[in-house]
Each structure stands twice: as structure tokens, then as C-alpha cells.
């Protein structure tokens, strides 16, 4: 069994209102989680996430597709 290659990202939660609307994480690079949890849907919230980058196609022409494996929201800055 292979070990997952997770990376840690720090960014800001954004709702993007194009191509049907979707949630993403803006940082130095943009990330498009395919499993965006309801608890993270707080616009402009600062977040730390541990993600697995995915090599898949999406309908949204924005960000790097990824799967979230863990997260922490900085609620003091919301």
C-alpha cells in the first residue's frame, strides 16, 4: 500500500460565482477541492489544509484539483 503524498497549504476560502459557482482555496496557488466540507464554506476565512493533489479534469477552469484530508480554520480572524 502506498503512502499518500499530502501537502500543507495556507489560504483563504472563496466562493467563485462563475461556471456554475464553486468553493475554492486561494493562496500563492489556487486549489479546487473535490470534497469541499460544509464546515469550510465560510467566505474569506483563513484556513490551513492538508491536501492530496489530483491529476483529474474538472468543469471549472480554476485551481489545482485536490482532495482535503484535514483542515483547521483560524476562527479568530473570521
Describe the structure.
- With 78 residues, this protein is mostly beta strands.
- The protein has one domain: Beta Barrel (OB fold (Dihydrolipoamide Acetyltransferase, E2P)), CATH 2.40.50.
- It has strands spanning 6-16, 22-26, 30-33, 46-53, 64-73.
- It has a 5-stranded mixed beta barrel.
- A hairpin with a 3-residue loop joins strand 2 and strand 3 (30-33).
- The protein is globular, with a radius of gyration of 12 Å.
- The termini are far apart.
- The model has no long low-confidence stretch (mean pLDDT 91).
Task: Offer a quick outline of the entry.
0% of the residues lie in helices and 49% in strands. The protein is mostly beta strands.
Say how many strands there are: 5
Tally of DSSP helical segments: 0
Low-confidence segments, given as residue ranges, are none
Report the principal-axis shape.
Answer: globular
The main sheet comes to: 5 strands, mixed, barrel
Please write the string of helix (H) and strand (E) elements. EEEEE
- Looking at CATH, which topology would you report? OB fold (Dihydrolipoamide Acetyltransferase, E2P)
Overall mean confidence score, pLDDT: 91
How many domains?
1
CATH class wording: Mainly Beta
Q: What is the alpha-carbon Rg in Å?
A: 12 Å
Q: What spatial order of strands do you see in the largest sheet?
A: 1-2-3-5-4
Judging by the overall fold, what is the CATH architecture?
A: Beta Barrel
Distance between the termini: 39 Å
Instruction: State which percent range the strand residues make up.
Output: over 45%
What structural class should be given to the helix and strand makeup? mainly beta
Helix content: under 10%
Amino acid at each position: 500500500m502506498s503512502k499518500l503524498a499530502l501537502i500543507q497549504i495556507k489560504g483563504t476560502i472563496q466562493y467563485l460565482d462563475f461556471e456554475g459557482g464553486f468553493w475554492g482555496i486561494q493562496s500563492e496557488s489556487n486549489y479546487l477541492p473535490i470534497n469541499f466540507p460544509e464546515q469550510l464554506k465560510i467566505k474569506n476565512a483563513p484556513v490551513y489544509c492538508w491536501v492530496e493533489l489530483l491529476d483529474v479534469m474538472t468543469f471549472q477552469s480554476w485551481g489545482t484539483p485536490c482532495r482535503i484530508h484535514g483542515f483547521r480554520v483560524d476562527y479568530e480572524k473570521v
